Amino acid sequence: MAVATLYQHQIRKKLEMITKSACQPFVSWSGIVPSIAPVYLFKLGETSSFSERFYWSDRSNEVVYAGIGCTYVIDEEGDGPRFSIIEEKWNDFLNMTEVHGEEEKATPVLFGGFSFDPLKKKTDKWTHFSNAKFIVPTVLLSLKKDCAMITITVPSKNNQSMLEEIDRLLGLLYTKSFHPTSSLPRCVTYEEIRTDEWIHAVRQIIDGIQQGSFDKVVLAREVRLQFDGQLTPSAVLEHLCEQQPFSYLFAFEQAGSCFIGASPEQLVKKEEHTFYSTCLAGSIRRGRTSSEDESLGQVLLQDEKNLHEHRFVVEMIRQAMQDVCEDVKISPEPQLLKMRDIQHLYTPVIGKSDSRVSLLSVVERLHPTPALGGAPKEKALEMIREAEPLDRGWYAAPIGWMNAMGDGEFAVAIRSGLLQGNEAFLFAGCGVVGDSEPFSEYEETNVKLKPMLSALGVKQDER
Ligand SMILES: C=C(O[C@@H]1C=C(C(=O)O)C=C[C@H]1O)C(=O)O
Ligand SMILES: [Mg+2]
């Protein structure tokens, strides 16, 4: 028997055995498998009967996940305490699940995200993206430091068709080789949504800041692209993997809509008792030559307006981390974070806490930082709700994963867009402060659109 089919066969046998003798409503089994690109499993999802998919890769590619199918969903549409509800329901699920496997530390993983602002009126395109939505995938492929593992989570009863579909998927995963998708449909229209209104709102915010109503407001805008064919999320994801390998890559697909992006920004990561966060705000483009790039970086490091934008974020994250951690370490000066299309001011933060502090409670405390909302938080949110000509949906909100030990990581879902049929809706924002200039802020958002435009094969200068 070929190695591949041997794996498929053994997994099937194990699952049947475990589910037969299970005392709990769900079982989760994990096993080490030959290394394979998680993006391939994501792509195979297109031919499966499972209609949910997700993908996650952190900035250092230490943890990469691809998940297909949805064995359990936690969906919170109200504007109540969505962070603690997710946490409670995840614990309920874990209490209903028997965990088996070859690896001691293997557990099911919960993946999902939040909307930016539950008080903003939801538009149709975000219908499948609740204020908080998390799934436990049926098939999860994880790659950690080059070790690949499959985790299968299924109900213990009435799971026959699910087991058959898993079997078929694993068969494909190990018998067919992965061919990258070469082409995407062509972009036929590029429409900036309500740009005049956006520029006007930037001016209004600058005035508001000068009058002392608030200190900083992050304002986003939207562009809508139409293509001459259906967009395939896996093809866009493959491009992101190639073009933005050192970003957080994420994709969350629900009923044919895929929210996808390549963000440079960590919100928070929990590893046992250690919390990591980053302050990221203040931007400049990359140079065309290395010397131009270097001097643009130096300009950014010394630019008062950008340093001012950055300081609000540092102060807020410092405070939030000090509220829950002892021993918060934070660099005294920002450094540069250079991504493919843009460079940012960046200050990492690390803190240690006791075991009672959960990951989602810190997500709640941090979201939205002044890098995505503004300062003071509530006033900035009111201004965004009122003046921003779009529904952010999941853009600029926390997206990420958690395991059964309570460890996990959330990124801020920027440099992102929603793919639906032959359309893509992309979003980009910028931190408006007292000495902002509307046209340069507009240009900054153009630079921030580049990662998604390149992944969609659209050249900004030629549009
Ligand atoms: C809001 C976005 O990015 C944020 C705003 C930044 C800025 O204004 O300098 C920089 C990084 C991000 O925190 C975005 O990319 O859409
Ligand atoms: Mg900025």
TrEMBL record:
Residues annotated as the enzyme's active site: K216 (proton acceptor), E265 (proton donor)
One Pfam family hit: Chorismate_bind
NCBIfam families: isochor_syn (TIGR00543)
Acetylation in keyword set: no
Residues that hold Mg(2+) according to the record: E309, E444
The protein's required cofactors: Mg(2+)
Enzyme Commission number(s) of this protein: 5.4.4.2
Domain Chorismate-utilising enzyme C-terminal: 196-448
Cited InterPro entries: ADC_synthase (IPR005801), Chorismate_C (IPR015890), IsoChor_synthase (IPR004561), MenF (IPR034681)
UniProt pathway: Quinol/quinone metabolism; menaquinone biosynthesis; Quinol/quinone metabolism; 1,4-dihydroxy-2-naphthoate biosynthesis; 1,4-dihydroxy-2-naphthoate from chorismate: step 1/7
Gene name in the database record: menF
Domain of life: Bacteria
Protein name: Isochorismate synthase MenF
Assigned keywords, A-Z: Isomerase, Magnesium, Menaquinone biosynthesis, Metal-binding
Catalytic reactions on record: chorismate = isochorismate
One GO MF term attached to the UniProt entry: isochorismate synthase activity
Organism for this UniProt entry: Anoxybacteroides rupiense
Keyword presence, Cell cycle: no
Function field: Catalyzes the conversion of chorismate to isochorismate.
Family: Belongs to the isochorismate synthase family.
